[in-house]
Write a structure and sequence with these properties.
The complex is a heterotetramer of chains A (381), B (86), C (337) and D (327).
Chain B: H1 3-17, H2 32-35, H3 40-54, H4 69-85
Chain C: H1 12-37, H2 52-59, E1 67-69, H3 75-81, H4 85-93, H5 127-139, E2 146-151, H6 158-169, E3 174-180, E4 183-184, E5 187-188, H7 198-203, E6 208-213, H8 217-234, E7 238-243, H9 261-268, H10 272-282, H11 290-310
Parallel strand pairs in C: 1-2, 2-3, 3-7, 6-7
Antiparallel strand pairs in C: 4-5
Helix pairs in contact in C: 1-2, 1-3, 1-10, 1-11, 2-3, 2-8, 4-11, 5-6
Chain D: E1 2-5, H1 6-20, E2 24-28, H2 44-52, E3 53-55, H3 60-72, E4 76-83, H4 84-98, H5 101-104, E5 114-119, H6 134-138, E6 144-146, H7 151-163, E7 168-173, E8 180-183, E9 196-199, E10 204-208, H8 211-225, E11 230-234, E12 237-239, H9 243-253, E13 256-263, H10 268-280, E14 289-293, H11 302-308, H12 312-320
Parallel strand pairs in D: 2-3, 2-4, 4-5, 5-7, 6-7, 10-11, 10-13, 13-14
Antiparallel strand pairs in D: 1-8, 6-12, 9-11
Helix pairs in contact in D: 1-7, 3-4, 8-12, 9-10
Classes of the chains: A alpha+beta (381), B mainly alpha (86), C alpha/beta (337), D alpha/beta (327).
Chain lengths: 381, 86, 337, 327
């Protein structure tokens, strides 16, 4: 049994309209014989059969539009028994499946998304990203006032960011020494509880979520401030104004020298993992020059630490208009007396500088020991 | 990864923390935390970069072993053999 | 069938060969119709059915060192020239094993071994090439000729006139063979040419010309031998107008509105294959078992060619731009490996 | 060092090729008796004879097609089409045969053909004789297209082109034939794959070819007076384009102007601008400028012809608006 199908009618022909049969069911047909007529836009075309045999059943009806390959009749080959033959439901166009697999469509290059706001040349946009320059602040000298890479280079160089920063720090420190009567206190703290807790805590965490002891120090200071509000606020126009929020300024040393102290907002209310994330974000952005000016202006107290290299203890200068600054020295192995026996412990020296116009040594000492106590129960931080 | 690739990975991780890293003046066998004035935050970023590149989780206890370039390479190579062997 | 004593040796063996060659082309193209309807052969397909005598007759007189340039109606020329049915069918399937790595299809068969410089889809597009190939032969003192096949449609193209003039002016060994099948696609020659005796066109460029019965393979062979020898001897071009007829549409498919069925039937009475068959039978040079044996051999060859083409490979997309130019190092010239 | 002309460099190149390789022959309208419509082949027919210096009838389809055929059969023809304006008749042979046969024959046939043609405007010969259609040819895969702008290239490109197994089209701008200059002794064949930086600069890259290369150099001198240092690149090859040399320069200067005598739409300048956008987008400080012919049939009167085609002052103006306020 063979299907007689609509033949491919030429390079530009997808379908043909069936016109008429020249044979009726039961007639003999021989190879090359014309047995039907199909209409194409070029005109009527006689369709020949390639299979000799007997015309079994007619499927195509006059006026029917049939795609190339659609079955039009069933032909029983010579010598085949007549058999009930249900015409197949959908036109199986197997023969046409010999085309090669289509080549992958080429991926359209991703179009750069136009940025709103000022015109910036692509070169300027790339250079600004590299140098961490904020494009908003630049005046363009290119066509239609566009910002060019030369504008970015000029902004980065003039005068060198580090020199500008040096001047700013210098001015603040000089004012602080002039106006703020500093008093200083220092206290050694056993850090083993924190370090042990951290070791077990970090084993459960993936690398990216590990917590540094620095975060514990910050949280301890932030929580302790609840009971010692006189160290958290601003001294402005001759009076101290305590701050309801606790924005811890974290002093960050910069690769090419210089220091910035961006704030971690509401440090007392941040759970430890989020505090760590905030800390890491601030430090990384500070070191890449990516800080926003707003983050540098609203600390209510500052904490500074010398990390692993540096000195045993330090006596920092308060950032006006703040009224206190907390400092942490290096972590060192020190003999420590516990129940009368001497044991080795990791010890850190914590120091506080206070503004004597606002607070005094006694409260300072209590504040310092409160922080030390908190650091003995790190799980509560 | 072979040893040359491991060393390149280590230096790349280090460079991500110290942008203007000058490999010529870095003694690979010596502790780089002092040589490059790297604090705990930088070191954490360095470890994170290493783990991302080598897919090897480095516990805190092993931080001592990866404080120098050569130390890190040896640690990673030895660790790589163990994980592929299991 | 007129008597052609001259050079052609009309023994049984030779006549059987002519018959077999024509039959081979006929059956090959009939199978192509079926394959085209089934979608295996795509694009354009121009059939030679009815004109077989021209390719078979001509190729007897065209030597291995001679060059051949033809048109898109080229299957007969390719097979008669010695290109295998396998390679030709594979080319029409678009497979890598085809004569042109599957890139050319029915209209662009190329074969360096037989100096078959291609079909050409641009009417008269190949004629200047033939002139140039003959120019090269002349400049190098080679005695081979260039056979340039084209149809009556080409006569209307500028390239035809410029090529004939140049070949005649520079005395180049080109054998122009015009297969005048009376129709340029859908335009009868009477509606395309003011002068329909095409030999007159050639003579206007001082080229010796002769009309030939394009349905009589022996007549074609005799005329082509004489013409080819003349071209070889004199080095000057010669023009044959083979008056012939195609039994099928210009290409698959056209409804042939431009001619009547009666005219086609009239010409079918002089089918080149049946003409030769009858003439051999009358001269009792054809034995009863000959035709069935030929049919069987030809059918086997064609079935094998189709199977070969079916099994062929698609060229990998990675080779898409291979052979556009010669690959060479920038700045340094080396012959392509 | 001998002072000579572009036309004479072309003639010497032909003489050398004809002497070195017996397969080489020259075919074209009035190349023999008349000595070449631009007198580039004077004296060759006397030395090499009418067999190898063939004057052709005015049958561009036939003799260009014959050139392709002769190359197909192993000769090394040089076909001179008097000007690009007449080459349109032969485009079918060039595109459908010369550029196509190697690929479409599955790599079987080679066409080591050189086609030379004059191009461009500037001689007040009106629209039909003043076309600049290099981009049509540089669009077609399967042929190589070069444009000698200097005497050294006019002298050296022909032999390299003849040795190339694929068709090479050489465009010689009509205004260059009488260009005078010095040609070092023994200067021979040159490569035809790379562009050349003829003038270093840091502020903008001028990309040009053929006659307009000289206009770009003139513009560079004018720009220097305004403290704008232009780097000038002679394309030399129009297909394939030497992207590497172009992008290296543009990445340095961050600005580019392409000078092309074709009409702007679909011009070679359009193709080069698109490639700069694709390959050096993030190095640009301004959009790529283009100085092309006005989109008009080139008019006969001098003042109109000059207004229609690229000029140094147009190049300077285009460069200037790539810079903002204080250029």
């Amino acid at each position: 049994m063979v299907e007689f199908r609509m033949p491919s009618l030429g390079a530009d022909m997808e379908a043909g309209t069936f016109v008429e049969w020249l044979k009726k069911p039961g007639d003999r047909v021989s190879r090359g014989e014309i047995i039907a007529v199909v209409e194409t836009q070029k005109g009527a075309i006689e369709i020949e059969v390639f299979q000799s045999g007997t015309l079994e059943t007619l499927i195509a009806k006059p006026g029917q539009k049939l795609p190339v390959g659609a079955p039009m009749a069933i032909i029983r080959g010579d010598g085949e028994a007549a058999a009930a033959f249900a015409p197949p439901p959908a036109p199986a166009v197997k023969a046409l499946e010999t085309r090669p697999p289509p080549a992958k469509a080429p991926v359209a290059p991703a179009l750069a998304t136009p940025s709103a706001g000022i015109h910036t040349s692509p070169a300027a946009r790339r250079r600004a990203a590299e140098l961490g320059i904020d494009l908003q602040k630049l005046v363009g000298t290119g066509p239609d006032g566009a910002v060019t890479s030369a504008d970015v280079e000029r902004a980065a160089a003039a005068p060198s960011a580090a020199a500008a920063m040096r001047q700013a720090i210098g001015a603040a420190m000089a004012r602080s020494k002039r106006e703020i009567p500093h008093y200083y206190l220092a206290h050694s703290i056993d850090l083993d509880p924190c370090l042990r807790w951290l070791a077990s805590e970090n084993e459960k965490r993936s690398v990216a979520e590990r917590i540094l002891y620095g975060a514990l120090l910050l949280k301890a200071v932030a929580l302790a401030l609840h009971d010692y509000p006189e160290f958290n606020g601003y001294y402005v126009d001759g009076a101290f104004r305590p701050s309801a929020q606790i924005h811890l300024g974290v002093a960050v040393a910069l690769p090419k020298g210089g220091l910035v102290a961006p704030a971690i907002h509401d440090a007392d209310r941040l759970p430890l993992p989020q505090l760590m994330v905030a800390l890491r974000d601030l430090v990384n952005r500070a070191r890449r020059g990516g800080l926003r000016s707003s983050e540098l202006a609203d600390s209510t107290i500052t904490v500074t630490s010398l990390g692993e290299q540096g000195a045993e203890s330090l006596f920092p200068v308060i950032y006006p208009p703040q009224v206190a600054i907390f400092g942490f020295g290096m972590v060192l192995d020190r003999p420590w007396v516990v129940d009368g026996t001497v044991v080795p412990r990791h010890v850190i020296s914590a120091s506080l500088a206070g503004d004597h116009r606002v607070s005094d040594g006694h409260r300072g000492g209590r504040f310092l020991t409160a922080v030390a106590q908190m650091l003995q129960k790190p799980e509560a931080l | 990864m072979n040893e040359k690739e491991l060393k390149a990975t280590v230096l790349k991780a280090l460079a991500s923390v110290v942008p203007e890293l000058d490999e010529a003046h870095l003694a690979p066998e010596k502790n780089f935390r002092e040589q490059l004035d790297i604090d705990s935050m930088d070191f954490l970023n360095y470890v994170i970069a290493l783990c991302a590149a080598t897919k090897i989780e480095i516990p805190e206890a092993d931080y001592r072993k990866i404080a120098s370039v050569d130390g890190t390479v040896a640690y990673l190579a030895q660790h790589q053999k163990r994980s592929s062997a299991t | 069938m007129i008597d052609h004593a001259s050079k052609v040796h009309l023994d049984r063996k030779h006549l059987l060969r002519l018959l077999r060659e024509m039959l081979r082309i006929r059956r090959f193209e009939e199978r192509c119709v079926e394959l085209y309807s089934g979608g295996k052969i795509r694009g354009f397909l121009h059939l030679y059915i009815g004109e077989e005598a021209n390719a078979v007759g001509a190729m007897q007189a065209i030597g291995p060192k001679d060059a051949v340039v033809t048109t898109y109606r080229e299957h007969g020329h390719a097979l008669a020239r010695g290109i295998s049915a396998r390679a030709l069918m594979a080319e029409m399937f678009g497979k890598m094993e085809g004569t042109s790595r599957g890139r050319g299809g029915s209209m662009h068969v190329f074969d360096a071994a037989t100096r078959f410089y291609g079909g050409n889809a641009i009417v008269a597009g190949g004629m200047p090439l033939a002139v140039g190939i003959a120019l090269a032969a002349k400049m190098r003192g080679e005695r081979n000729i260039t056979a340039c096949f084209f149809g009556d449609g080409a006569v209307a193209e500028g390239a035809f006139h410029e090529s004939l003039n140049l070949a005649s002016l520079w005395k180049l060994p080109v054998l122009f063979i015009c297969e005048n099948n009376r129709y340029a696609m859908g335009t009868a020659i009477e509606r395309a040419q003011a002068q329909i005796d095409l030999t007159k066109h050639a003579e206007s460029y001082a080229i010796r010309a002769e009309a030939v019965d394009g349905m009589d393979v022996v007549a074609v062979e005799v005329a082509t031998h004489r013409a080819a020898d003349l071209v070889r001897e004199t080095g000057e071009p010669y023009f044959l107008e083979n008056r012939t007829y195609r039994f099928r549409a210009h290409s698959m498919y056209d409804p042939e509105l431009y001619r009547s069925k009666a005219e086609v039937e009239e010409w079918k009475k002089r089918d080149p294959i049946t003409l030769l068959e009858a003439w051999m039978r009358d001269s009792n040079l054809l034995h009863p078992e000959d035709m069935p044996k030929l049919e069987a051999e030809v059918a086997a060859e064609i079935d094998d060619a189709v199977a070969f083409a079916e099994a062929g490979q698609w060229e990998p997309v990675a080779d898409l731009c291979k052979d556009v130019m010669t690959v060479r190092k920038v700045g340094v010239l080396e012959a392509a490996k | 060092m001998t002072t000579t002309t572009y036309r004479d460099a072309v003639r010497v190149a032909h003489r050398e090729a004809l002497q070195r390789d017996p397969r080489v022959f020259l075919m074209g309208e009035d190349v023999g008796r008349y000595g070449g419509s631009y007198a580039c082949t004077k004296g060759l027919i006397e030395e090499f004879g009418p067999e190898r210096i063939r004057d052709t009838p005015l049958s561009e389809v036939a003799f260009v097609g014959a050139g392709i055929g002769a190359a197909l059969a192993g000769m090394r023809p040089i076909v001179e089409i008097m000007t690009v304006n007449f080459s349109m008749l032969a485009l079918d042979q060039i595109v459908n045969n010369a550029a196509t046969i190697r690929h479409m024959s599955g790599g079987q046939f080679s066409i080591p053909l050189v086609i030379r043609m004059a191009t461009g405007a500037g001689r007040q010969v009106a629209a039909q004789h003043s076309h600049s259609l290099e981009s049509w040819y540089a669009h077609v895969p399967g042929i190589r297209v070069v444009a000698p702008a200097t005497l050294a290239d006019a002298r050296g490109m022909l032999w390299t082109a003849l040795e190339d197994p694929d068709p090479v089209v050489i465009f010689e701008h009509a205004m260059l034939y009488s260009l005078e200059g010095d040609l070092p002794e023994g200067s021979g064949s040159v490569d035809i794959d790379r562009a050349a930086v003829l003038r270093p600069g840091r502020d903008v890259t001028l990309i040009a070819y053929s006659e307009n290369l000289h206009k770009a150099l003139a513009a560079a001198e004018l720009l220097a007076q305004d403290r704008i240092e232009a780097e000038v690149i002679d394309l030399r090859t129009l297909r394939p384009l030497d992207d590497a040399t172009i992008m290296t320069s543009v990445r340095k200067t961050r600005r580019a102007v392409v000078v092309d005598e074709g009409w702007r739409s679909g011009s070679l300048a359009a193709e080069i601008a698109a490639r700069i956008m694709e390959q050096a987008f993030y190095d640009l400080d301004a959009p790529v400028g283009r100085v092309c012919s006005e989109e008009v049939p080139i008019p006969y009167p001098k003042h109109l012809e000059d207004a229609a085609i690229p000029q140094p002052h147009k190049i300077v103006a285009t460069v200037k608006n790539l810079f903002g306020s204080h250029g």
